[in-house]
Automatic annotation (TrEMBL):
Organism of derivation: Salibacterium salarium
Catalytic activity annotation: alpha-D-glucose = beta-D-glucose
Binding-site residues for beta-D-galactose, renumbered to this chain: 178-180, 251
Protein name, per record: Aldose 1-epimerase
Enzyme active site: 178 (proton donor), 312 (proton acceptor)
Pathway connected to this protein: Carbohydrate metabolism; hexose metabolism
The entry's keywords: Carbohydrate metabolism, Isomerase
EC category: isomerase
Family listed: Belongs to the aldose epimerase family.
């Protein structure tokens, strides 16, 4: 079942909230502004249904949001150094919205746009199909790109995000969702008791501006070795130059082992909630909310460092094409397709 409600108006545009709910009581709230996840409710091991994502208490805060709360970001997720988009015979200069660099699609990226939408209901799943056209030259990007982002809630505890895009010129595209998860439920505590596991073989080394240097860091013997699962509280207590660069936590691209199952798992020790993110993508930026400000007001509490964890599944930057994995490079007329499925559950 999908419920549609106009909850505000901005600049003549209606702010629409969609609510999808399955028969198990799992519920997803999404906005047409930035395709933002504005609530995600799942049970714990005792059956208590609570919100497991950060969302603003006042919907108007999304207009000025700078942490991409719950949003789809693009055209390209992540930082592009100096806004230089280099193609074979040309260099395009993108908008600079983080100092001298381009972040998450620019000044008015997909996260801060109103999307068109359609709703599809079936016996076993509900779907919201968001669509957007990004015109040639927008934020400096070449090519007019038609994008679809599809939210799917199934009856079996799965919530999927599907991405589709097509460009009339060769360009860069790498889409992700920037939801901050907190499995404690209703933001009872920070993410220190979350255990995170990923089949990563390395991370991108970052400079002081969180820009990939072009070098890879092997994770063996470092706080970034989460192949067997690590409690984040323990990670935050360790010392490592790459943790220091990111304000004491993760804000790094974890590159999956090539033959491994592309899946990130999160487990909250105190209430048994689990989250599994299975993806088509070659890796993910895991961000532990290292710079979430105290001045922010969410539905169930205030902002603070380590308030939530983002699992940003996405393509590799073009600079890492030698790794022989999908990058953000998109040829004209070729379809871009990606998907990530979030499965929620509990364990004792």
């Amino acid at each position: 079942m999908i419920k549609k409600e106009i909850i505000d108006h901005w600049d003549g545009e209606p702010v629409v909230q969609f609510t999808m709910e399955n028969n198990q009581g799992m519920k997803v709230e999404a906005l047409n502004f930035g395709c933002r996840i504005n609530g995600l409710y799942v049970p714990d091991e005792k059956g208590n249904i609570e919100n497991v994502v950060l969302a603003y208490k006042d919907v108007k805060d999304y207009k000025t949001d700078s942490i991409y709360l719950g949003a789809v970001v693009g055209r390209v997720a992540g930082r592009i150094p100096y806004g230089r988009l280099e193609l074979t015979n040309d260099v395009h200069h993108l908008s600079l919205n983080e100092g001298s660099h381009h972040l998450h699609g620019g000044t008015t990226g997909f996260s801060h746009r109103f999307w068109d939408y359609d709703m599809e209901e079936a016996d076993d799943e509900d779907r919201i199909v968001f669509s957007l056209q990004s015109v040639d030259g927008e934020e400096g990007y070449p090519g007019t790109v038609d994008i679809k982002v599809i939210y799917v809630l199934e009856e079996n505890g799965k919530f999927s995000i599907e991405y589709e895009a097509m460009s009339d010129k060769t360009t860069w595209v790498s889409l992700t969702n920037h939801t901050y998860f907190n499995l404690s439920g209703n933001q009872k505590r920070d993410i220190g008791h979350h255990v995170v596991q990923a089949p990563a073989e390395c991370i991108f080394e970052l400079d002081d501006y969180l820009i990939p240097t072009g070098d890879l860091v092997k994770i063996d013997g470092t706080p970034f070795d989460i192949r067997e699962g690590r409690k984040l509280k323990d990670v935050f207590s360790e010392s490592h130059p790459q943790l220091s660069v990111a304000n004491g936590g993760f804000d790094h691209f974890f590159v999956f082992e090539k033959e491994a199952e592309k899946k990130i798992s999160v487990y909250e020790e105190k209430n048994g909630r689990t989250l599994e993110a299975a993806t088509t993508e070659p890796g993910a930026v895991i961000y532990t909310g290292n710079k979430v400000k105290d001045s922010l007001t969410f539905k169930e509490g205030n902002g603070h460092v380590f308030a939530g964890i983002c699992v940003e599944t996405e393509r590799l930057p073009e600079d890492f094409r030698e790794l022989d994995r999908p990058t953000c490079h998109l040829e004209a007329g070729k379809p871009y397709k990606a998907a990530t499925t979030f499965t929620f559950g509990t364990k004792k």
